[in-house]
Predict the 3D structure of the following.
Amino acid sequence: MRQVNGDGTGTAVLPGPGTGPSAGHSAEAGTEENGGASTAFRDFMSSYFTGVSIVTAVDPSGRPHGLTCSSLTSVTLSPPTLQVCLESRSGTLAALRARGTFAVNLLHQGATGTASVFASTRPNRFERTAWRPAPTLGVPWLYDDAYAVAECEIADTVVIGDHVVVFGRVVSVENGVGRPLLYGRRGFVGLHPTEAAEVMGAEAGIR
């Protein structure tokens, strides 16, 4: 699987048919001994449907970077903290480490094209989507494709294998309206309006 950076280098999160899991952390085994387990794990993770986000950052020169990511997890509400997992050679990772800030853009189901672009090696991907600096930290906000965005400051990082887990303290959130884009079984899907209403009703009941 590969995570793709704003400069077209690195490796992408969302796998194509017959490749790795939809999560943003690596399941590559790299040895014959655990190759079977790795394949089973890829299949296991591909059956787990997740939301789709684009992680964005700006490097010290002001250049935007970003990649499509499905490895997003809420860590704690106090303080508000989330985590994403990025490939260690990622230009996006280098940018967010250099500035100490990043954004997580939650994509709506009309943003499959943008999700594919940011999971590819296409150059100048920020020229292919509308964006502007988010109001608090100035990190890229894909306002046409994201129904919500969280601006974060790095709280901690942990290296695991060839990936880095990034913990972000959420300092600002912009919430909007939209049905989330999902990824699973190695493809993008969207909720039917009836299903979306049922999910919202269930969430309201939980609260």
The chain has four helices and twelve strands. Residues 193-206 form the longest helix (14 residues). The radius of gyration is 16 Å.
